[in-house]
Amino acid sequence: MQSKARLSFPQQIDSIHTDFVFCSFTIIDKRDLLLTIRIDFHSPYKKNVAERTVILQGRELFFTFSVLSVQGANQRLIFPINIYSDIVPESNAISLCSAYMDTDGYPLIYTGKPFSSISSQETLRQLFHSVQNQTSLFIENKTIGVRKFTVNTSYDWIYNMQTHTMQILQK
User: Fold this and answer.
1) Radius of gyration of the chain from Cα atoms?
2) 99 pLDDT above the threshold of 50
3) Which of 134, 117, 109 is nearest to 9 (CA)?
4) Per-residue confidence band for 150, with pLDDT thresholds at 50, 70 and 90
5) What pLDDT digit, counting tens, does each position of 3-41 carry?
6) How many CA atoms lie within 13 Å of 19's alpha carbon, on the beta-carbon side?
7) Beta partners for 39?
8) Burial 115-147 (b: 16+ CB within 10 A, else e)
9) Would you put residue 32 in left (φ > 0), alpha (ψ -120 to 50) or beta?
10) Torsions phi, psi of 10, nearest 5?
């Protein structure tokens, strides 16, 4: 279901770059079926705001993210949710939200001047809480899989704000 969220800053969302690289990941070690993955989280302005290293069994990776539509703008807010594999089922996925959340519950991937007002930050904090708990009708969850990857190579997790498509590209 795709609905529109009511946010107080649609013009500011329009200023996000067309291609939002909100995450990048690197397989830093692969031994048999055990993968060590470093995930870097970025603001819309390509600033690295957080990172997390996870160890996961598998040959294929799957990333789930939530998309919130913004009323009054042809834009979306993107929130990385979890990672799982062909061996670790989605029901046992590793949550990613806490990695890019500050102590007040604010999603650090939305830092920068357009999001600096108190009302924008409070709205984003509330939306992020809804995303974490999957309690909003405005959430559309999507999953993207990666079958082939190379150790010590970085990949960007990109959301195109105009076409509303997701892709993972090798850096």
Assistant:
1) 16
2) yes
3) 117
4) very high
5) 333 444 434 444 445 677 889 999 999 999 999 999 999
6) 8
7) 25, 52
8) beeeebbebbbebbbbbbeeeeebbeeeeeebe
9) left
10) -60, -35
> Position of tokens 């690197």?
26
Give the model confidence (pLDDT) of 76-85 as tens digits: 788 999 999 9
Please answer whether residues 124 and 115 qualify as being in contact, where contact means their C-beta atoms are separated by less than 8 angstroms.
Answer: yes
Measured distance CA(151)–CA(149) in Å, rounded: 7
Read off the tokens for 159: 């959301």
Which two tokens mark 5? Answer: 């969220």
Taking alpha carbons only, the member of 44, 32, 25 closest to residue 156 is: 25
How far is residue 76's CA from residue 44's CA, in Å, rounded to a whole number?
12
CB atoms within 10 A of CB 26: 20
Q: Which amino acid is at 45?
A: Y
Q: Which two tokens stand for residue 55?
A: 């160890």
Helix extents (H) in 21-117 = none
**Euclidean distance between CA atoms 144 and 146, whole angstroms:** 7
| Structure-block tokens of residue 16 | 């996000």
Tokens found for residue 71: 């009323």
